[in-house]
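S., here's the first fold you wanted:
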Amino acid sequence: MDRGQATPTVVHGSPAFEGANIRTWIGFKHFMYLVEHAVLRWLRDNGAGVRELYSEYGLGLEITDCSVQLPAVLEIDDEVRAEVVRGRGNRLTVQLSVARDGARTTVLRGKVTVALVRERTANGHRRPPKSLADFTVDELAVPGHEHRRIPRGQTATSVLATGPAAFLWSWRAPYFYCHYSERVQHSGFVRTLEEVVDRYLADRGISVGRMLAERSWIPVVSRARVRLLDAAYMEETVHTVFTVTDILRGVMFDGRMDCYVQRGDELVAVATAQILHGYAIAAGPGAGGLAELDDGVVSALLGSGS
């Protein structure tokens, strides 16, 4: 498709049952899965699908950056309309909407950066479709990000787990987080972001389950962004650091995730993410509104509580 053409790709779908963890509301991870699904359809509409790209052209689709805003809730039974249009360069714009009370309600606005990586595991070697040629890259690595050196006598843990607000979780990259037989895909790091936040909150004594049981606070994510910086390979250990960086208006907390793999005496940054998180009140006084983060919760989030 000509880059000047404004005709969007439109996909209709619905969220997976797996995403309805709190009542019947869908978590942010499954919003991003719907975006991924729409991007795959856009590729098919504009030259070639993922299988053809890999088998015929030796190219592997990689979502390298996905940034979303979530202005409204998504329910398990919602029928979602996804619209994808091409922006500048290798960026796509995605909007998800649902029918509510006779009108369409936007539940996601997103920006997605796409790369078609020349795969060493693929046999295909034809030239890619002209419409997708600008997306091709030789490797996943994003230039400009810094590696961290591990000084003599220290470890990845001692280098990364610094300060009371930094939470470190190290995990083995399983094959089911990977694609193209070797590396962790974007959705694997989306899953990592969800899990590291859950682990962080539990470690600080304010787990999701506790806040639900004691305060009827329901976790709400209004913004998230996950970026790939370099390849993380199957069965490597991924050292993941999560830090709460700011408290906004007393009702939201801004968090950052950074993921590294150790290669020799260096820690290579492979992914980074930001998330804006808060709580909705499910019952009692203030039901339906955002919960105010009291001093105890703020102290726990910032790592200054007991």
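And the second, which I think is the more interesting of the pair:
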Amino acid sequence: MSEGLVTHTVLRPNPEDWDHFVRSQARAHLLQLAAWGALKSQFGWDAQIVALSDGSGIVAGASVLLKNLPLGLGRMAYLPRGPYATDEEHYPALWEAIRSETGAAFLKVEAGHFQDQPAPDFSAMGFAPSPQSIQPNNTVQIDIRDDDEIILKRMNQGTRRKIRKSLKAGIDYTQGSREDLEDFNRLMQMTGERKDFGVHSLEYFERVFELFIPEHGALLLAKRNDKSLGAIMIFALGSTAWYFYGASSRENSNHYASYGLQWRAIQWAKARGCLCYDMWGIPDHDQETLETQFQQRSDGLWGVYGFKRGWGGRIRRTAGTWDLAFNPLVYGAYRTALKFSG
């Protein structure tokens, strides 16, 4: 169908209708649910759902996050793991709707397409590769469709051994309640200080729990003799589960609780009918570079790659981060500022 024959109506659907559309997509992602926008809108962003209808229902759209740029230069619009469209012909109209509805100076898209999947031609639509990513573009995904022994067999020997030790170490693995969030946050802060990475606040994790855990997630705890060894937050939507947040105590190294927690997370995901467990975030390099450098580096996401590489998953990279300038002058200033700040 020619784009010129398509008449679109711009919508701002309610959260229920939008989430129904997201769940109908093959690439349904947690970060495109209305609740993710509700979360981020309490911590420095604004959120807005922009969608298109052809008269029969939503045919394209995105949950858009908006952030003010420095010096009063306007706002950036950001699409985490979106957008969605029933046909690629709808994308140009969607970009225009986002521009007009948000008034943003530019649009940043981190689509959920992987490089081995068909993806929109962002370059042909006027986008440029972005110098700044927000979510990690590289991940490790574990196929969890098979029985446990086959999943274990795909792991390296060291990971299998540590999982089995963790399950025999007298550790209690349980699903936590909201009352456990203070302990979870304490572990997160300790881990962040130890490994030198930024950590969200207790208030943030409380809101995550309220918005996602009842329907889409779980807080998993590992304790031994009433001492907390580790905890993780995991989430699921459609056929995919994700590991977003995790922490451990120094005592964990003796009992490998982090391995037991991830194994319990895989079991949780399988019980929900998920086919894939996404370990979420490794350095943005090809596999050869990752394998030759991970033992020498611990900065950024390198510190977690050594752990994630042993789980028998495959490295997958998204289509990357792309920017579309609505206001070329402001966008040029943004790119210049990044050069000087880096």
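Why I say that: The mean pLDDT is 94. The chain has two domains: 3-133+319-341, 138-317.

Talk tomorrow,
H.
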